[in-house]
Amino acid sequence: MPRKGARRAAGGPSVGRRAGRTLRGVRRGAQPKVVALGGGMGLSASLTALRRITGDLTAVVTVADDGGSSGRLRDELGVLPPGDLRKALAALCGDDEWGRTWSEVIQHRFQSEGELHDHAVGNLLIVALWEQLGDHVGALDLVGKLLGAHGRVLPMSAVPLALEASVLGHDPALPEELSRVRGQASVALTPGEVREVMLVPSDPPAVPEAVAAVLDADWVVLGPGSWFSSVIPHLLVPELLDALVSTKARRVLSLNLAPQPGETDGFSPQRHVEVLVQHAPKLTFDVVLADRAAVPDGESLSQAAAERLGAEVVLAPVAANAGSGPGAGSARHDPELLAAAYDRVFRMHGRIGPWR
User: Which residue windows are transmembrane per the record (predicted)?
Assistant: First the structure.
Protein backbone atom coordinates (compact mmCIF):
# COMPACT_ATOMS: atom_id res chain seq x y z
CA MET A 1 0.00 0.00 0.00
CA PRO A 2 1.50 3.35 -0.94
CA ARG A 3 2.16 5.95 1.71
CA LYS A 4 -0.91 8.08 2.32
CA GLY A 5 0.31 11.61 1.74
CA ALA A 6 1.44 14.12 -0.79
CA ARG A 7 4.76 13.83 -2.55
CA ARG A 8 5.96 16.81 -4.51
CA ALA A 9 7.88 15.95 -7.65
CA ALA A 10 11.16 17.83 -7.59
CA GLY A 11 12.40 20.08 -10.34
CA GLY A 12 11.09 23.11 -12.17
CA PRO A 13 10.46 23.54 -15.89
CA SER A 14 14.13 23.38 -16.87
CA VAL A 15 14.54 20.09 -15.02
CA GLY A 16 11.37 18.71 -16.59
CA ARG A 17 12.47 19.61 -20.10
CA ARG A 18 15.94 18.19 -19.51
CA ALA A 19 14.41 14.95 -18.24
CA GLY A 20 12.03 14.87 -21.20
CA ARG A 21 14.93 15.03 -23.63
CA THR A 22 16.57 12.00 -22.04
CA LEU A 23 13.46 9.85 -21.70
CA ARG A 24 13.33 8.85 -25.34
CA GLY A 25 16.60 6.95 -25.05
CA VAL A 26 15.78 4.78 -22.04
CA ARG A 27 14.54 1.23 -21.89
CA ARG A 28 15.76 -0.02 -25.21
CA GLY A 29 14.87 -3.54 -24.14
CA ALA A 30 11.63 -4.40 -22.39
CA GLN A 31 9.45 -1.37 -21.64
CA PRO A 32 6.50 -0.74 -19.32
CA LYS A 33 3.17 -1.69 -20.83
CA VAL A 34 0.99 1.39 -20.38
CA VAL A 35 -2.73 1.74 -21.07
CA ALA A 36 -4.21 5.25 -21.12
CA LEU A 37 -7.97 5.74 -20.95
CA GLY A 38 -9.94 8.88 -21.77
CA GLY A 39 -11.01 10.92 -24.74
CA GLY A 40 -10.59 14.24 -26.49
CA MET A 41 -7.76 16.66 -25.82
CA GLY A 42 -7.05 15.33 -22.33
CA LEU A 43 -6.22 11.87 -23.62
CA SER A 44 -4.21 13.41 -26.45
CA ALA A 45 -2.08 15.28 -23.91
CA SER A 46 -1.47 12.09 -21.95
CA LEU A 47 -0.56 10.08 -25.06
CA THR A 48 1.79 12.77 -26.38
CA ALA A 49 3.64 12.56 -23.06
CA LEU A 50 3.54 8.79 -22.61
CA ARG A 51 4.89 7.98 -26.08
CA ARG A 52 8.06 9.78 -25.00
CA ILE A 53 8.74 7.25 -22.23
CA THR A 54 7.45 3.91 -23.54
CA GLY A 55 7.02 2.16 -26.86
CA ASP A 56 4.37 -0.21 -25.47
CA LEU A 57 1.36 2.09 -25.28
CA THR A 58 -2.35 1.47 -25.81
CA ALA A 59 -5.09 4.11 -25.81
CA VAL A 60 -8.64 3.12 -24.88
CA VAL A 61 -11.03 5.78 -26.11
CA THR A 62 -14.61 6.79 -25.32
CA VAL A 63 -17.19 6.36 -28.10
CA ALA A 64 -20.11 8.53 -26.98
CA ASP A 65 -19.39 11.69 -29.00
CA ASP A 66 -22.46 13.01 -30.82
CA GLY A 67 -21.32 16.44 -31.98
CA GLY A 68 -19.59 17.90 -35.04
CA SER A 69 -18.18 15.69 -37.78
CA SER A 70 -18.34 12.59 -35.57
CA GLY A 71 -21.99 13.13 -34.76
CA ARG A 72 -22.90 13.60 -38.42
CA LEU A 73 -21.09 10.42 -39.48
CA ARG A 74 -22.65 8.54 -36.59
CA ASP A 75 -26.16 9.70 -37.54
CA GLU A 76 -25.75 9.15 -41.29
CA LEU A 77 -23.86 5.84 -41.28
CA GLY A 78 -24.59 4.28 -37.90
CA VAL A 79 -20.88 3.99 -37.08
CA LEU A 80 -18.88 4.62 -33.95
CA PRO A 81 -17.98 8.31 -33.58
CA PRO A 82 -14.42 8.43 -34.93
CA GLY A 83 -13.30 11.86 -33.67
CA ASP A 84 -11.71 10.95 -30.34
CA LEU A 85 -10.09 7.90 -31.95
CA ARG A 86 -8.62 10.20 -34.62
CA LYS A 87 -7.27 12.60 -31.99
CA ALA A 88 -5.61 9.72 -30.15
CA LEU A 89 -3.96 8.50 -33.36
CA ALA A 90 -2.71 12.02 -34.10
CA ALA A 91 -1.23 12.27 -30.61
CA LEU A 92 0.67 9.03 -31.18
CA CYS A 93 2.29 10.32 -34.38
CA GLY A 94 6.02 10.88 -34.07
CA ASP A 95 7.88 14.17 -34.00
CA ASP A 96 9.69 13.47 -37.28
CA GLU A 97 8.52 14.86 -40.64
CA TRP A 98 6.39 11.78 -41.41
CA GLY A 99 4.63 11.92 -38.08
CA ARG A 100 4.04 15.67 -38.12
CA THR A 101 2.72 15.54 -41.69
CA TRP A 102 0.26 12.73 -41.07
CA SER A 103 -0.88 14.23 -37.79
CA GLU A 104 -1.75 17.44 -39.64
CA VAL A 105 -3.43 15.55 -42.50
CA ILE A 106 -5.79 13.49 -40.36
CA GLN A 107 -6.64 16.54 -38.24
CA HIS A 108 -7.35 18.68 -41.32
CA ARG A 109 -10.97 19.85 -41.64
CA PHE A 110 -12.56 20.77 -44.95
CA GLN A 111 -13.98 24.27 -45.27
CA SER A 112 -16.75 24.54 -47.85
CA GLU A 113 -20.35 25.50 -48.44
CA GLY A 114 -21.30 21.86 -49.02
CA GLU A 115 -21.72 18.59 -47.15
CA LEU A 116 -18.01 18.13 -46.53
CA HIS A 117 -17.80 21.29 -44.43
CA ASP A 118 -15.99 20.69 -41.12
CA HIS A 119 -15.48 16.97 -41.72
CA ALA A 120 -12.02 15.85 -40.58
CA VAL A 121 -9.93 13.85 -43.05
CA GLY A 122 -9.05 11.32 -40.37
CA ASN A 123 -12.71 10.72 -39.52
CA LEU A 124 -13.47 9.88 -43.15
CA LEU A 125 -10.41 7.63 -43.41
CA ILE A 126 -11.31 5.68 -40.28
CA VAL A 127 -14.95 5.21 -41.29
CA ALA A 128 -13.95 4.16 -44.82
CA LEU A 129 -11.70 1.44 -43.41
CA TRP A 130 -14.42 0.29 -41.01
CA GLU A 131 -16.73 -0.15 -43.99
CA GLN A 132 -14.03 -1.88 -46.06
CA LEU A 133 -12.81 -4.26 -43.36
CA GLY A 134 -15.87 -4.65 -41.13
CA ASP A 135 -13.47 -4.67 -38.18
CA HIS A 136 -13.14 -1.71 -35.80
CA VAL A 137 -9.87 -2.83 -34.25
CA GLY A 138 -8.25 -4.03 -37.46
CA ALA A 139 -9.08 -0.77 -39.22
CA LEU A 140 -7.62 1.35 -36.42
CA ASP A 141 -4.49 -0.79 -36.39
CA LEU A 142 -4.15 -0.22 -40.14
CA VAL A 143 -4.49 3.55 -39.75
CA GLY A 144 -1.91 3.46 -36.98
CA LYS A 145 0.48 1.55 -39.25
CA LEU A 146 -0.01 4.14 -42.01
CA LEU A 147 0.74 6.99 -39.60
CA GLY A 148 3.67 5.26 -37.95
CA ALA A 149 1.82 5.68 -34.64
CA HIS A 150 3.83 5.02 -31.49
CA GLY A 151 1.13 2.88 -29.91
CA ARG A 152 -2.27 1.30 -30.45
CA VAL A 153 -5.72 2.92 -30.34
CA LEU A 154 -8.82 0.96 -29.30
CA PRO A 155 -12.45 1.97 -28.74
CA MET A 156 -13.77 1.14 -25.28
CA SER A 157 -16.86 -0.45 -26.88
CA ALA A 158 -17.84 -1.49 -30.40
CA VAL A 159 -21.35 -0.13 -29.79
CA PRO A 160 -22.14 3.57 -30.37
CA LEU A 161 -23.09 4.94 -26.96
CA ALA A 162 -25.19 7.83 -25.72
CA LEU A 163 -24.31 9.76 -22.58
CA GLU A 164 -26.99 10.91 -20.17
CA ALA A 165 -26.52 13.11 -17.13
CA SER A 166 -28.54 13.97 -14.07
CA VAL A 167 -28.10 17.73 -13.68
CA LEU A 168 -29.10 19.90 -10.73
CA GLY A 169 -30.34 23.33 -11.77
CA HIS A 170 -30.21 22.71 -15.52
CA ASP A 171 -33.15 25.11 -15.71
CA PRO A 172 -31.99 28.32 -14.00
CA ALA A 173 -35.58 29.00 -12.98
CA LEU A 174 -35.62 25.71 -11.02
CA PRO A 175 -32.22 25.59 -9.27
CA GLU A 176 -33.17 22.74 -6.92
CA GLU A 177 -34.65 20.45 -9.57
CA LEU A 178 -32.85 17.50 -11.15
CA SER A 179 -33.12 17.22 -14.93
CA ARG A 180 -31.96 14.57 -17.39
CA VAL A 181 -29.64 15.81 -20.17
CA ARG A 182 -28.82 13.50 -23.09
CA GLY A 183 -25.85 13.62 -25.45
CA GLN A 184 -22.14 14.12 -24.82
CA ALA A 185 -22.09 17.52 -26.53
CA SER A 186 -25.00 18.72 -24.37
CA VAL A 187 -23.55 17.32 -21.14
CA ALA A 188 -20.20 19.01 -21.78
CA LEU A 189 -21.81 22.46 -21.94
CA THR A 190 -24.78 22.03 -19.62
CA PRO A 191 -25.72 24.77 -17.17
CA GLY A 192 -26.21 23.55 -13.62
CA GLU A 193 -24.24 20.91 -11.70
CA VAL A 194 -23.75 17.44 -13.15
CA ARG A 195 -24.49 14.93 -10.39
CA GLU A 196 -24.27 11.62 -12.23
CA VAL A 197 -23.72 10.26 -15.73
CA MET A 198 -25.04 7.09 -17.35
CA LEU A 199 -24.53 5.28 -20.64
CA VAL A 200 -27.25 4.16 -23.02
CA PRO A 201 -27.29 1.19 -23.35
CA SER A 202 -26.42 0.78 -19.67
CA ASP A 203 -24.33 -2.39 -20.05
CA PRO A 204 -22.44 -2.08 -23.34
CA PRO A 205 -19.92 -4.79 -24.22
CA ALA A 206 -16.29 -3.80 -23.95
CA VAL A 207 -13.91 -4.35 -26.85
CA PRO A 208 -12.06 -7.57 -25.86
CA GLU A 209 -8.68 -6.15 -26.88
CA ALA A 210 -9.22 -3.20 -24.52
CA VAL A 211 -9.99 -5.51 -21.61
CA ALA A 212 -6.96 -7.66 -22.42
CA ALA A 213 -4.70 -4.60 -22.59
CA VAL A 214 -5.81 -3.39 -19.15
CA LEU A 215 -5.30 -6.83 -17.61
CA ASP A 216 -1.84 -7.17 -19.18
CA ALA A 217 -0.61 -3.65 -18.34
CA ASP A 218 2.12 -2.57 -15.96
CA TRP A 219 0.49 0.85 -15.59
CA VAL A 220 -3.00 2.16 -16.26
CA VAL A 221 -3.51 5.93 -16.60
CA LEU A 222 -7.03 7.42 -16.33
CA GLY A 223 -7.45 11.08 -17.28
CA PRO A 224 -6.97 13.92 -17.74
CA GLY A 225 -9.96 15.02 -19.79
CA SER A 226 -13.59 16.08 -19.61
CA TRP A 227 -14.46 14.40 -16.34
CA PHE A 228 -18.05 13.37 -16.96
CA SER A 229 -17.99 12.95 -20.74
CA SER A 230 -14.54 11.44 -21.40
CA VAL A 231 -13.10 9.99 -18.17
CA ILE A 232 -15.95 8.52 -16.12
CA PRO A 233 -17.68 6.76 -19.09
CA HIS A 234 -14.90 4.14 -19.03
CA LEU A 235 -16.08 3.18 -15.55
CA LEU A 236 -19.63 2.61 -16.82
CA VAL A 237 -18.69 -0.26 -19.16
CA PRO A 238 -19.03 -3.29 -16.84
CA GLU A 239 -16.33 -5.51 -18.39
CA LEU A 240 -13.88 -2.63 -18.58
CA LEU A 241 -14.51 -1.60 -14.98
CA ASP A 242 -14.04 -5.21 -13.84
CA ALA A 243 -10.69 -5.26 -15.63
CA LEU A 244 -9.64 -1.95 -14.07
CA VAL A 245 -10.52 -3.23 -10.60
CA SER A 246 -8.87 -6.65 -10.98
CA THR A 247 -5.74 -5.79 -12.99
CA LYS A 248 -2.39 -6.22 -11.29
CA ALA A 249 -1.24 -3.00 -12.97
CA ARG A 250 -0.46 0.11 -10.95
CA ARG A 251 -3.04 2.85 -11.53
CA VAL A 252 -2.59 6.61 -11.96
CA LEU A 253 -5.42 9.13 -11.88
CA SER A 254 -4.29 12.23 -13.79
CA LEU A 255 -6.26 15.33 -12.78
CA ASN A 256 -7.17 18.28 -14.98
CA LEU A 257 -5.40 21.62 -14.85
CA ALA A 258 -8.64 23.52 -14.24
CA PRO A 259 -12.39 22.93 -13.92
CA GLN A 260 -14.19 22.71 -17.25
CA PRO A 261 -16.83 25.39 -17.87
CA GLY A 262 -20.25 23.78 -17.77
CA GLU A 263 -19.27 20.20 -16.96
CA THR A 264 -17.21 20.71 -13.79
CA ASP A 265 -17.59 24.43 -13.13
CA GLY A 266 -16.42 25.24 -9.61
CA PHE A 267 -15.10 21.72 -8.90
CA SER A 268 -12.06 21.44 -6.64
CA PRO A 269 -9.50 18.68 -7.28
CA GLN A 270 -10.95 16.71 -4.38
CA ARG A 271 -14.46 17.05 -5.83
CA HIS A 272 -13.16 15.40 -9.01
CA VAL A 273 -11.98 12.50 -6.85
CA GLU A 274 -15.32 12.28 -5.04
CA VAL A 275 -17.47 12.06 -8.17
CA LEU A 276 -15.19 9.41 -9.65
CA VAL A 277 -15.55 7.33 -6.48
CA GLN A 278 -19.32 7.83 -6.66
CA HIS A 279 -19.38 6.15 -10.08
CA ALA A 280 -16.85 3.38 -9.28
CA PRO A 281 -16.63 2.84 -5.51
CA LYS A 282 -14.51 -0.34 -5.78
CA LEU A 283 -11.79 1.20 -7.95
CA THR A 284 -8.57 2.21 -6.21
CA PHE A 285 -5.46 4.00 -7.44
CA ASP A 286 -1.82 4.08 -6.46
CA VAL A 287 -1.13 7.68 -7.47
CA VAL A 288 -3.14 10.83 -8.09
CA LEU A 289 -1.08 13.14 -10.32
CA ALA A 290 -1.87 16.86 -10.37
CA ASP A 291 -0.25 20.12 -11.37
CA ARG A 292 0.96 21.79 -8.19
CA ALA A 293 -0.36 25.21 -9.28
CA ALA A 294 -3.85 23.71 -9.81
CA VAL A 295 -4.13 22.44 -6.22
CA PRO A 296 -4.82 25.26 -3.76
CA ASP A 297 -5.32 22.86 -0.84
CA GLY A 298 -2.84 20.01 -1.08
CA GLU A 299 -3.69 18.64 2.35
CA SER A 300 -7.39 18.22 1.50
CA LEU A 301 -6.56 16.53 -1.80
CA SER A 302 -4.11 14.18 -0.09
CA GLN A 303 -6.74 13.26 2.47
CA ALA A 304 -9.42 12.65 -0.17
CA ALA A 305 -7.04 10.60 -2.33
CA ALA A 306 -5.89 8.47 0.60
CA GLU A 307 -9.32 7.89 2.12
CA ARG A 308 -11.36 7.47 -1.05
CA LEU A 309 -8.86 5.90 -3.47
CA GLY A 310 -6.04 4.50 -1.33
CA ALA A 311 -3.71 6.71 -3.35
CA GLU A 312 -0.75 8.98 -2.78
CA VAL A 313 -0.78 12.45 -4.34
CA VAL A 314 2.12 13.51 -6.55
CA LEU A 315 2.26 17.22 -7.36
CA ALA A 316 4.43 18.25 -10.30
CA PRO A 317 4.66 21.19 -12.71
CA VAL A 318 2.93 19.81 -15.82
CA ALA A 319 1.16 22.89 -17.25
CA ALA A 320 2.43 24.78 -20.28
CA ASN A 321 3.12 28.50 -20.03
CA ALA A 322 0.13 30.49 -21.28
CA GLY A 323 2.24 32.39 -23.84
CA SER A 324 0.70 34.68 -26.42
CA GLY A 325 -0.03 32.38 -29.38
CA PRO A 326 -3.18 30.46 -30.37
CA GLY A 327 -4.95 29.09 -27.34
CA ALA A 328 -3.18 31.50 -25.00
CA GLY A 329 -4.97 31.77 -21.70
CA SER A 330 -6.40 28.24 -21.84
CA ALA A 331 -4.87 25.61 -19.57
CA ARG A 332 -2.98 22.87 -21.38
CA HIS A 333 -0.34 20.31 -20.50
CA ASP A 334 3.29 20.63 -21.52
CA PRO A 335 4.16 17.25 -23.10
CA GLU A 336 7.77 17.27 -21.87
CA LEU A 337 6.82 18.18 -18.31
CA LEU A 338 3.98 15.67 -18.23
CA ALA A 339 6.31 12.97 -19.62
CA ALA A 340 8.84 13.74 -16.89
CA ALA A 341 6.11 13.52 -14.23
CA TYR A 342 4.82 10.18 -15.53
CA ASP A 343 8.36 8.80 -15.74
CA ARG A 344 9.04 9.85 -12.16
CA VAL A 345 5.81 8.23 -10.97
CA PHE A 346 6.57 5.00 -12.84
CA ARG A 347 10.10 4.80 -11.43
CA MET A 348 9.23 5.72 -7.83
CA HIS A 349 6.01 3.74 -7.49
CA GLY A 350 6.51 0.83 -9.88
CA ARG A 351 7.14 -2.72 -8.84
CA ILE A 352 10.47 -4.19 -9.84
CA GLY A 353 9.78 -5.88 -13.16
CA PRO A 354 11.40 -6.95 -16.41
CA TRP A 355 10.98 -3.47 -17.90
CA ARG A 356 12.89 -1.67 -15.12
Answer: none
Residue 160 has a CB neighbour count (10 Å cut-off) of: 19
**What's the CA gap between 258 and 135, in Å, rounded?**
37
User: Do residues 199 and 163 lie in contact, with contact meaning Cβ atoms separated by under 8 Å?
Assistant: yes
Domain limits, the chain? 1-62+203-351, 64-155, 162-200
Q: Which of 77, 96, 21, 84 is nearest to 53 (CA)?
A: 21
> Among candidates 259, 260, 263, 271, which has minimal Cα distance to 191?
263
Q: H-helix or E-strand containing 50?
A: helix 40-50
Strand order across the beta sheet in which 162-168 lies: 178-182, 162-168, 193-200
Per-residue pLDDT of 93-107, as tens digits, reads 999 999 999 999 999
| Reported pTM | 0.88
For the domain made up of 1-62+203-351, the CATH class stated in words is alpha beta
